[in-house]
Design brief:
The chain has 324 residues and is of the alpha/beta class. It has 2 domains: 4-116 and 242-322, FAD/NAD(P)-binding domain (3-Layer(bba) Sandwich), CATH 3.50.50.60; 132-238, FAD/NAD(P)-binding domain, CATH 3.50.50. It has helices spanning 14-25, 60-73, 136-139, 155-164, 186-194, 288-306, 316-322, and strands spanning 4-10, 30-34, 77-80, 83-87, 93-97, 102-110, 114-116, 132-133, 147-151, 170-174, 198-201, 204-211, 215-222, 228-231, 235-238, 242-244, 274-276. The strands form 4 sheets. Strands 1, 2, 3, 4, 5, 6 and 17 form a 7-stranded mixed sheet that branches. Strand 12 (204-211) and strand 13 (215-222) form a beta hairpin. It starts with a strand and ends with a helix. The relative contact order is 0.17.
Length: 324
């Protein structure tokens, strides 16, 4: 007979680990199942200064190690495995891993995270966290009075470019479209065009990121002339979207048209006893602090569910509104 956990958490990012802390501390039998290193995207961030209370020479991996130690201190069991299938029907739910192990839980908290879309250009991988970033809110202050490049032209890219101008000496936006054509909303486009710190390179794509230990420059290619231009910059911010790690959830829980998991403010999905937290959830801000908040709420809601206090869940009307 397989062991049945009160709370079984899929994914050991900040949201999943916080759920582990709250679940275990409530004396619930709690386990978190992770396919790789615990910590999620935060564990790949070299420096982290925006998580409350952690600001002195703090690395992402260091903060996530503290999350993990905290959860284990209260008794959270850490399991290894990549989930490939789930059975979420009935009172006892189960998840199955790639290697065939099955784990059971009375409640499930989904914390699979999301992955930033990458450019796939030379230098991007080795310099990630060393000048290459996918989050201006996280890293902008590291580039005070320095020159940076932003790749992308949607709402997120242009809003983040404007945010970067509060810190950087200059922000150069590389846009694949003709001059003046942006994919963001008109108001943001107008504000950005008027910002004296923002420069524009049109009809172009980033071809290569250069540098040894840190970003030192980029090569930009004009898609109409094939001309290559070299720019000296200290940072590269990539905003071409993110991908929720939810392929394994297709047909298991409701997803929006982009693959994110809708929840209500109690982190409840459309399935009783199943919750979602962190970057894979439909939300406004994807940060360690918001993921941690999600995890705390989900664990407390799961505890109430186990006590028989079943409340509202995601409705078809909510899904319809999200997908408009």
């Amino acid at each position: 007979m397989s062991e049945v956990y009160d709370i079984l958490i899929v994914g050991a990012g900040p949201g999943g680990l916080t759920a582990g802390i709250y679940g275990s501390r409530a004396k619930l039998k709690t386990a978190v199942l992770e396919k790789g290193r615990p910590g999620g995207q935060a564990a790949t961030t070299m420096e982290m200064e925006n998580y409350p209370g952690f600001f002195k020479h703090t690395s992402g991996p260091g903060v996530m190690d503290e999350f993990l130690a905290h959860a284990q201190h209260f008794g959270t069991v850490v399991l290894k495995g990549q989930v490939t299938d789930l059975d979420l029907d009935g009172e006892i739910k189960s998840v199955t891993t790639k290697t065939g192990e099955t784990y059971k839980g009375k409640t499930i908290i989904l914390s699979p995270g999301a992955t930033p879309r990458t450019l796939g250009v030379k230098g991007e991988g080795p310099l990630r966290g060393k000048g290459v970033s996918y989050c201006a809110t996280c890293d902008a202050d590291f580039f005070e009075e320095l020159d940076v490049v932003v790749v992308g032209n949607g709402d997120a890219a242009i809003e983040e470019a404007m945010y970067l101008t509060k810190f950087a000496e200059s922000v150069t936006v590389v846009v694949i479209h003709d001059e003046g054509v942006l994919d963001c909303n008109k108001m943001s486009a107008e504000k950005a065009m008027k910002n004296p710190k923002i420069k524009w390179i049109w009809n172009s794509v980033l071809e290569e990121i250069q540098g040894e230990e840190l970003v030192e420059g980029v090569l930009v290619k004009n898609i109409k002339t094939d001309e290559i231009t070299e720019l000296e910059v200290n940072g590269v911010f990539v905003f071409i979207g993110s991908v929720p790690n939810t392929d394994f959830l297709q047909g298991k829980v409701a997803l929006d048209k982009w693959g994110y998991i809708p929840t209500n403010d109690k982190m409840e999905t459309d399935i009783p006893g199943v919750y979602a937290v962190g970057d894979a959830r439909v939300k406004v801000l994807r940060q360690v602090v918001t993921a941690a908040a999600d995890g705390a709420i989900a664990a407390v809601t799961a505890e109430r569910y186990l006590e028989g206090h079943v409340e509202g869940r995601v409705t078809p009307e909510m899904l319809q509104k999200l997908n408009k």
